[in-house]
């Protein structure tokens, strides 16, 4: 299954950690938040699917999702909740959820439902992104420069995708460390710079701009036809 970027909104520490680790083992990028306040800090970030708990410490995840829908957010969303009444399911779906999963559930069922989202073509991500002269095919997970295929490591692909999803925006080193390296960032202080250097060698020196003291950026451009 092609990799997706997922927002997981779950306040139960054991469940949140378990789902995050399982979904990462499936190859996905997972941003896990335990409160609405934390999730609101990334409004505007591109996600393929939202995984939302109903009851959170600072409010209703369903109300949060409904608010995003009113503001035009069409990102596919799955409600993860212990509320199992038919009326609850109807309320969740009517409020903007695309699917509804009752706790406790097996992680494999969640993975299957994510595959359904992809088959429906519900991913919010563009199928092809630009990174300088390179084209990144998100479905095939392949890169090309001037029509020629380019081999990227898993970390190089993650970095290229993270930047290409944010054209024209400066992405801080700390954010890239979190998105690309995760726990490795704590033990490999120069790992990100190494991956940037390798990407420039493979995709072209102008593929990634260094904004000194702030982070990295790629030029905003329209996706290829």
Please, how many helices?
Answer: 8
Placed side by side, the strands forming the largest sheet appear as 2-1-3-6-7
The CATH topology name of the largest domain reads Rossmann fold
Q: Write out the CATH superfamily name of the largest domain.
A: Response regulator
Distance between the first and last residues' Cα: 24 Å
Provide the low-confidence segments as ranges: none
Main pleated-sheet profile: 5 strands, parallel
Chain-averaged pLDDT: 84
Strand portion? 15-25%
H/E topology pattern: EHEHEEEHEHEHEEEEHHHEE
CATH architecture of the largest domain: 3-Layer(aba) Sandwich
CATH class of the largest domain: Alpha Beta
Helix content: 25-40%
Number of domains: 2
How would you characterize this protein structure?
With 225 residues, the protein is of the alpha/beta class. It has eight helices and 13 strands. Helix 4 links the parallel strand 6 and strand 7. The two termini are 24 Å apart.
How would you summarize what this structure contains?
With 225 residues, the protein is an alpha/beta fold.
Explain the layout of strands and helices.
Blueprint: E1 5-9, H1 13-25, E2 29-33, H2 36-40, E3 49-53, E4 55-56, E5 59-60, H3 61-70, E6 77-81, H4 86-94, E7 99-102, H5 107-119, E8 128-131, E9 134-137, E10 142-145, E11 148-150, H6 154-164, H7 173-181, H8 191-203, E12 209-211, E13 215-217
Parallel strand pairs: 1-2, 1-3, 3-6, 6-7
Antiparallel strand pairs: 4-5, 8-9, 9-10, 10-11, 12-13
Helix pairs in contact: 6-7, 6-8
List keywords for this structure.
225 residues, alpha/beta, Rossmann fold, 2 domains, five-stranded parallel beta sheet
């Amino acid at each position: 299954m092609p990799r997706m970027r997922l927002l997981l909104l779950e306040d139960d520490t054991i469940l949140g950690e378990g789902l995050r680790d399982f979904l990462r083992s499936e190859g996905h990028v997972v941003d896990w938040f335990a409160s609405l306040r934390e999730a609101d800090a990334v409004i505007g970030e591109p996600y393929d699917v939202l995984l939302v708990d109903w009851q959170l410490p600072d409010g209703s995840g369903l109300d949060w999702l409904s608010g995003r829908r009113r503001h035009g957010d069409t990102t596919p969303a799955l409600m993860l909740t212990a509320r199992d009444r038919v009326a609850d399911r109807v309320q969740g779906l009517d409020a903007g959820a695309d699917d509804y999963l009752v706790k406790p559930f097996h992680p494999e069922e969640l993975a299957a439902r994510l595959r359904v989202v992809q088959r429906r073509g519900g991913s919010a991500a563009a199928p092809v992104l630009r990174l300088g002269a390179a084209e990144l095919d998100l479905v095939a997970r392949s890169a090309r420069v001037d029509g020629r295929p380019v081999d990227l490591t898993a970390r190089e692909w993650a970095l290229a995708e993270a930047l290409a999803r944010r054209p024209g925006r400066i992405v801080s080193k700390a954010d890239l460390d979190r998105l690309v390296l995760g726990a490795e960032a704590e033990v490999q202080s120069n790992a990100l710079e190494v991956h940037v250097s390798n990407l420039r060698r493979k995709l072209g020196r102008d593929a990634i701009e260094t904004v000194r003291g702030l982070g990295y950026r790629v030029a905003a451009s329209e996706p290829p036809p």
